[in-house]
């Protein structure tokens, strides 16, 4: 009987240890560079950060996070909100390989409707002498980001993470068209009328991140 009780205690202790859980957090800085886009002229990189917080269950981390992304020389921002999961293959070693997945939604934050990623090289007169100004004004939509990386342990709790991930971004393109009006007289200036056309396209990117976990 004593042996049976002792065996049960050891088994319960082993199960508890296998599913031992504790808080874990991440903070990462990242840059996302384009590798393919359905709009070939859009070549700008995105910069930002993410922070995730959750529970470590043995080798599995599960949690949720939020971040910010912005394009260089632009007045448009995105805020990804996501669920986060990560699997550590060699969590007890000084160097650890891991895979992860962030899945959620990016909220498009427009600072002002008059701003966007204004690419002056894409402003031109078309065949009908209409003047076109192209802006890339937002990137809200589904957020999916699978990743692989290496963790370098600093101490019992903290580590440095180097991560590479695939990040497809749904972007919005706005084309403002200024149409020439008719001049009322020889010395009078031409009038213009304006309207905008909107379209969406995908920008497929590779993101590189460096950060800390704690």
- List the secondary-structure elements in sequence, H or E: HEEEEEEEEEEE
What is the CA–CA distance across the termini? 44 Å
Q: What is the number of helical segments per DSSP (H or I, 4+ residues)?
A: 1
Shape: elongated
The radius of gyration over CA amounts to 25 Å
What's the CATH architecture name?
Beta Barrel
The main pleated sheet reads as: 8 strands, antiparallel, barrel
Q: Which fold does the CATH topology refer to? A: Porin
Query: Stretches where pLDDT falls below 50 for ≥5 residues?
Result: 15-19, 113-124, 182-190
Structural class: mainly beta
Tell me the name of the CATH class.
Mainly Beta
Query: Quick one: how many beta strands?
Result: 11
Keywords:
214 residues, mainly beta, Porin, eight-stranded antiparallel barrel, 11 strands, 8% helix
Plain-language structure description:
This protein is mainly β and 214 residues long. The protein has one domain: Porin (Beta Barrel), CATH 2.40.160.20. Helices cover 8% and strands 65% of the residues. It has one helix at residues 2-18; strands at residues 21-37, 46-57, 60-71, 76-88, 95-110, 117-118, 124-125, 131-138, 141-153, 159-180, 192-213. It has an 8-stranded antiparallel beta barrel with strand order 1-2-3-4-5-9-10-11. The protein is elongated, with a radius of gyration of 25 Å. It starts with a helix and ends with a strand.
């Amino acid at each position: 009987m004593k042996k049976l009780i002792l065996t049960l205690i050891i088994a319960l202790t082993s199960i508890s240890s296998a599913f031992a859980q504790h808080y874990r957090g991440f903070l990462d800085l990242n840059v996302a560079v384009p590798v393919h886009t359905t709009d070939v002229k859009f070549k700008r990189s995105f910069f930002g950060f993410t922070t995730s917080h959750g529970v470590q269950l043995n080798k599995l981390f599960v949690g949720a996070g939020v971040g910010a992304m912005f394009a260089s020389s632009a007045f448009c921002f995105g805020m990804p909100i996501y669920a986060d999961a990560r699997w550590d293959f060699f969590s007890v070693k000084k160097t650890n390989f891991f895979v992860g997945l962030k899945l959620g939604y990016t909220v498009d934050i427009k600072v002002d409707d008059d701003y966007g990623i204004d690419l002056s090289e894409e402003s031109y007169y078309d065949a009908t002498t209409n003047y076109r100004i192209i802006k890339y004004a937002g990137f809200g939509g589904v957020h999916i980001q699978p990743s692989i990386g290496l963790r370098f342990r600093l101490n019992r709790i903290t580590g440095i993470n180097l991560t590479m991930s695939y990040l497809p971004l749904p972007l919005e393109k706005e084309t403002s068209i200024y149409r020439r009006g008719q001049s009322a007289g020889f010395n009078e200036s031409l009038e213009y009328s304006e309207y905008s056309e909107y379209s969406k396209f995908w920008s497929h990117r590779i993101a590189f991140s460096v950060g800390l976990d704690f």
